[in-house]
Design brief:
alpha+beta, single chain, Ribosomal Protein L30, Chain: A, 2 helices, three-stranded antiparallel beta sheet, 21% strand
């Protein structure tokens, strides 16, 4: 008998964050530009919905001056 394991996801629980890019990443450091790209933000005023995880929160804290966060 094989026992199936269930995957745990935070998106299934409804914990998401909306992140909107409000400042340009032109004059930022390369690390900050990579963080913006890693969050999926490509253009000004673009909004993405992400899972609320410690990893995503840490990325947002690095560029908090450039984004607007909605829970």
């Amino acid at each position: 008998m094989a026992v199936e394991k269930k995957k745990k996801t935070t998106a299934a629980k409804g914990k998401t964050i909306k992140v909107k890019l409000i400042r340009s990443s032109i004059a930022c450091t390369p690390k900050q530009k990579a963080t913006v790209k890693g969050l999926g933000l490509t253009k000004m005023n673009k909004t993405v919905t992400l899972e609320d995880t410690p990893c995503v929160r840490g990325m947002i804290n690095k560029i908090i001056h450039m984004v607007e966060v909605t829970l």
